[in-house]
Write a structure and sequence with these properties.
The complex is a heterodimer of chains A (393) and B (357).
Chain A lengths: L3 H14 L7 H10 L21 H9 L12 H14 L2 H13 L4 E4 L15 E5 L2 E8 L10 E7 L10 E7 L5 E6 L8 E12 L3 E2 L5 H17 L10 H10 L6 H29 L6 H23 L25 H8 L9 H12 L20
Parallel strand pairs in A: 1-4
Antiparallel strand pairs in A: 2-3, 3-7, 4-5, 5-8, 6-7
Chain B lengths: L7 H17 L2 H8 L7 H10 L18 H13 L6 H13 L4 H9 L4 E3 L15 E3 L2 E10 L6 E5 L4 E6 L4 E4 L9 E10 L1 E5 H37 L1 E2 L2 E2 L4 H30 L3 H26 L11 H11 L6 H11 L6
Helix pairs in contact in B: 1-4, 4-7, 4-8, 5-6, 5-7, 7-8, 7-9, 7-10, 8-9, 9-10, 9-11
C-alpha cells in the first residue's frame, strides 16, 4: 500500500538522485515521470503509481519546497487535461507508451480538433470526413477555435467515418500528426485584436489506423471522456480572496478615489460578494473531491466565472472613465499563454466575452445542469434517428 | 482552511431533525396553525429542545448545554428552514443564547439550554449587527416603554431588554404586555412588548451582547435561508416534472430549465457561503467578513427561489392551500431580518477596504 509517507520517501529519493539545482529541466521531469510521481493516480509505468488522485498534493508539496521545475502545466493544458485522460482510458498499450511521457514532460504540445464552423454547440454534427484507404485514413475538412495549433505536435481529432448513420454513431476519434503536409494552421484574429486561436484546414491528411483511439464509430463516446475532463479541470482550481477578475478592479478602486461614484460602489460591492461566494463554492468543490465525494458543482463553476468575469471587467472599463475610452494595443499578436487578467481592463472586457462560449456555451451548460443534475426532461429531438447526411444544414 | 463540508455527525443530526419534522411538521398543519390561537408549535419545540437537546447546542457542557458549535446549529436551521417550522429556535437557542453567553447570567443560560424556558432578545428583527436599536427607560430600577417587531416574543418566558443606560436586562414575561403584530411572515410571529414598571435584573453590558447575538443570528440565518431555498427548488423541480401542458412535462421547456438551472447554481453558492459563515462563527476566524458575505448574498437567493417557486407553480402558487406562500413570506422577511443585504454590503465596504466615495 502506497501511502503519504511512502510518497514522501519516493519524492525524497527522486530529489536525491536528480538534484534540481544541477539537473537539466527535461531530465528531471522525465525522471519524475519514470518514478511514478508525475500524476500518481495514473498506472505504474505511465507516470503514476495507481494511488488516489488526492495524494498528488503530497508529492506537489514536497517538490514545491525543493526548487524542482514543473512541466509548465498552463502551456500544455490541453494535453494534460484532455488528451491524456482519453488516451489513458481508450488507448492501446503502444499508444499509451508512445504518447503519455512526452506529453507530460512538455516535449510534445497537444491541441484539440473538435469544433467546426458548422458544428459548435451541436458538435456531433461535425462534417470533417475520414475515409479508409488501406492501412490509413484520409482526412478532409476544417476545424476552428483551435488554441495552441501553431505550437502543437499532436492533435486529438474527431471526424466522420460513416455519414449513413445518425450523427452520434458515425464518428471516430484519431490522434493526428500536426506536422503532416496536409495540415494547414491559420491564425484566427479575435475581437481583442490578437490571435490566440486558429483555424485548421485538413487536406488529404493521412492518419495510420494505428493512431485511431477506440473503435470505429465510437468516437462520440471517446470524446465524452475528453470533454468531462475539461470540466473537471475548470472546476478544480484554488483561489485566494480577490484572486480572480475582482482583484484588479478592487486595486483600482483603492488606489484611485477620484474615480469612485455611489452607483459604481454598490455594483462593485455586489460583484465582490459574488466573487467571494464563487470562490468559496470552488473551494467547497475542491474539498468534496479530496474527500472522495465528487459533486455536480463543477458544472456550475464555469457558468459563474464566465458571468462574473464579464460583469466585473465591464464595470472596470466604466470605472476608468476617460481612460476607459482607450485600448492598450490592437496589434495582431500570437500569445502563447492565455491570461484572462493580463493587460488592461478593455482587453479583459473583450477577452472575457469568450468565457461564456469556449468549452461549452453557458446556454448548453444550463441544459446540462437542468437535465443531468435536476433530471428535467430533454427537449424533444428531431435529429436522433436521422442519418447524418440527411440533417438540415 | 475553513471546512465547508458536512461531517458524518452533522449528517446524522440532519437526518434526525428531518425525521422529526417529517412526522410532526407537515405543511398542511403549519398553514392551519398560522391562523389559530397558537401560531407557534410548542409541542414540536419541546421535542427539539427537550427531547433532542438541541436548544443547548451553543452552550458549554458545564453550563448545562451540549457544547457543540455553530456548525451543528446551522444544520438544524437548514432543516427548520426546509419545513418553515414555527418554532423559536433561531431567536431563543441562537440569538438570546448568544446574548446571555456575553453576560453573567448562568442560571438563565442553563434554563434556555435545557429548553424548559424560551428566551427572546427584545430588539426589532430588522436590526443588523452593529446597527442602532431602541431601548427602554429606567425609573427606580423599573422599566418603562415599548419595543416593536420582537420575533417570537409571544412564546418567550424571559425577555432580554436593552435599557437606555446601556445595560441588558432580563425581564420575566409575566412583567410585560406582549401584543401580537400582524406579520408578513406567518411562521415567525412578531409582537410589541410594553413595559409599564416592569421588574428587571441587570445581566450585562447591552452593546457587546446585542452585537454578538445579532452577528450569530445573521450568520446562521443564512443556513435557514439555504434550507428554504433548497426546499423551494426541489419542490418546484418535482412539480414541473409532473405537470403537463401542451402534451409535455412543463419542466422540459428550455425557458424554464434554464431558470431552474440558474437557481440551482445560486443554491450551490449559498451552501458554500452559509457553511463558511457557520464555520467562521465556530472558529472565530474571519467571522465578520464571513457573516457579512453570507448575508449580503443569501437574501437574494432565498427570495429568488421562493418567487420562482410561486411563478412556476402557476395558479397553484397563488393559493393559500399550497405551502409555497409560507416560503415566500419567510424568505422576504428573512431578507430584512438581522440587516438587509445592503446593510451587510456597507459593513463589508469597511471590512475589506472598498470605501464609499
Amino acid at each position: 500500500m502506497t501511502d503519504a509517507a511512502e510518497l514522501k520517501r519516493r519524492t525524497a529519493e527522486l530529489l536525491a538522485a536528480y538534484p534540481p539545482a544541477t539537473t537539466d529541466r527535461l531530465d528531471f521531469l522525465q525522471a519524475r515521470f519514470d518514478a511514478g510521481l508525475a500524476w500518481v493516480h495514473y498506472p505504474e509505468g505511465l507516470g503514476g503509481l495507481g494511488v488516489p488522485r488526492s495524494l498528488q498534493a503530497v508529492v506537489d508539496a514536497e517538490l514545491a519546497d525543493s526548487g524542482a521545475p514543473d512541466n509548465d502545466p498552463r502551456r500544455i493544458g490541453i494535453g494534460l487535461g484532455m488528451a491524456a485522460p482519453t488516451i489513458l482510458q481508450y488507448g492501446t498499450e503502444e499508444q499509451k507508451q508512445r504518447f503519455l511521457r512526452p506529453l507530460w514532460v512538455g516535449e510534445e504540445v497537444w491541441c484539440q480538433l473538435f469544433s467546426e464552423p458548422g458544428a459548435g454547440s451541436d458538435l456531433a454534427a461535425l462534417g470533417t470526413r475520414a475515409v479508409r484507404e488501406g492501412e490509413d485514413w484520409v482526412v478532409n475538412g476544417q476545424k476552428v477555435w483551435t488554441s495552441s495549433a501553431h505550437l502543437a505536435r499532436w492533435a486529438i481529432l474527431i471526424a466522420r467515418t460513416d455519414p449513413e448513420v445518425p450523427k452520434h454513431a458515425g464518428i471516430t476519434y484519431f490522434l493526428c500528426d500536426m506536422t503532416d503536409p496536409g495540415v494547414e494552421v491559420r491564425p484566427l484574429r479575435q475581437i481583442t485584436g490578437e490571435a490566440e486561436f486558429n483555424e485548421v484546414f485538413l487536406t488529404n491528411v493521412r492518419i495510420p489506423d494505428s493512431r485511431r483511439l477506440g473503435e470505429v464509430g465510437n468516437g462520440w463516446r471517446v470524446a465524452q471522456t475528453t470533454l468531462n475532463n475539461e470540466r473537471v479541470a475548470i472546476g478544480g482550481m484554488r483561489l485566494p480572496r480577490e484572486g480572480g477578475m475582482i482583484g484588479p478592479v478592487s486595486k483600482t478602486w483603492r488606489e484611485r478615489p477620484e474615480l469612485r461614484t455611489p452607483d459604481l460602489h454598490q455594483r462593485l460591492l455586489g460583484l465582490w460578494v459574488e466573487s467571494e461566494v464563487a470562490r468559496l463554492t470552488a473551494e467547497r468543490l475542491r474539498q468534496q473531491l479530496v474527500a472522495g465525494q465528487p459533486g455536480y458543482e463543477g458544472s456550475g463553476m464555469k457558468l459563474s466565472f464566465a458571468r462574473l468575469n464579464q460583469e466585473i471587467s465591464g464595470l472596470e472599463v466604466e470605472l476608468r472613465g476617460e481612460e476607459g475610452l482607450l485600448y492598450d494595443d490592437w496589434t495582431m499578436r500570437r500569445p502563447e499563454l492565455v491570461d484572462f487578467t493580463g493587460r488592461d481592463a478593455g482587453y479583459r472586457y473583450l477577452r472575457s466575452k469568450g468565457n461564456s462560449i469556449e468549452g461549452g456555451t453557458s446556454e448548453v451548460l444550463l441544459n446540462i445542469v437542468a437535465e443531468r443534475v435536476l433530471g428535467l426532461p430533454a427537449e424533444p429531438r428531431t435529429d436522433k434517428d436521422v442519418a447524418w447526411k440527411d440533417l438540415a444544414r | 482552511m475553513t471546512d465547508l463540508l458536512y461531517s458524518e455527525e452533522e449528517e446524522a443530526l440532519r437526518s434526525a431533525v428531518r425525521d422529526l419534522l417529517t412526522d410532526h411538521c407537515d405543511a398542511a398543519s403549519v398553514i392551519t396553525r398560522t391562523e389559530s390561537d397558537a401560531p407557534h408549535d410548542l409541542s414540536l419545540w419541546k421535542s427539539l429542545a427537550d427531547g433532542m437537546g438541541l436548544a443547548g447546542l451553543l452552550v458549554p457542557e458545564d453550563k448545562g448545554g451540549q457544547g457543540a458549535t455553530h456548525r451543528e446549529v446551522a444544520v438544524v436551521l437548514e432543516e427548520l428552514g426546509r419545513a418553515v417550522a414555527p418554532v423559536p429556535y433561531l431567536t431563543s437557542a441562537v440569538v438570546a443564547t448568544e446574548a446571555l453567553l456575553a453576560c453573567d447570567a448562568d442560571d438563565l443560560l442553563v434554563e434556555l439550554a435545557s429548553g424548559r424556558r424560551i428566551g427572546a432578545l427584545a430588539v426589532a428583527l430588522n436590526v443588523a449587527p452593529g446597527g442602532s436599536f431602541k431601548t427602554v427607560r429606567l425609573e427606580d430600577g423599573f422599566l418603562y416603554g415599548e419595543l416593536t417587531g420582537v420575533a417570537d416574543a409571544a412564546v418567550a418566558d424571559v425577555l432580554l431588554v436593552p435599557g437606555e443606560d446601556g445595560g441588558l436586562y432580563a425581564v420575566d414575561a409575566s412583567e410585560v404586555t406582549v401584543t401580537p403584530q400582524v406579520a408578513l411572515d406567518l411562521t415567525r410571529p412578531l409582537a410589541t412588548v410594553s413595559f409599564d414598571g416592569a421588574r428587571a435584573r441587570l445581566v450585562g453590558d447591552g452593546g457587546p451582547a446585542v452585537r454578538r447575538a445579532l452577528r450569530a443570528g445573521a450568520g446562521l440565518l443564512a443556513s435557514e435561508q439555504l434550507g428554504l431555498s433548497d426546499w423551494t427548488l426541489t419542490e418546484t423541480v418535482r412539480y414541473l416534472k409532473e405537470r403537463k401542458q401542451f402534451n409535455r412535462p412543463v419542466g422540459g421547456f428550455q425557458a424554464l430549465k434554464h431558470r431552474l438551472a440558474q437557481l440551482w447554481l445560486e443554491v450551490v453558492n449559498l451552501r458554500a457561503a452559509a457553511r463558511n459563515a457557520a464555520d467562521a462563527l465556530a472558529t472565530g476566524e474571519d467571522t465578520d467578513v464571513a457573516v457579512a458575505v453570507a448575508q449580503a448574498y443569501a437574501a437574494r437567493v432565498a427570495v429568488h427561489a421562493a418567487e420562482e417557486a410561486v411563478q412556476l407553480h402557476g395558479g397553484l402558487g397563488m393559493t393559500w392551500e399550497h405551502p409555497v406562500h409560507l416560503y415566500l413570506k419567510r424568505a422576504k422577511a428573512d431578507s430584512i431580518a438581522y440587516g438587509t443585504a445592503g446593510a451587510h454590503r456597507a459593513e463589508l465596504a469597511e471590512l475589506v477596504d472598498l470605501q464609499a466615495p
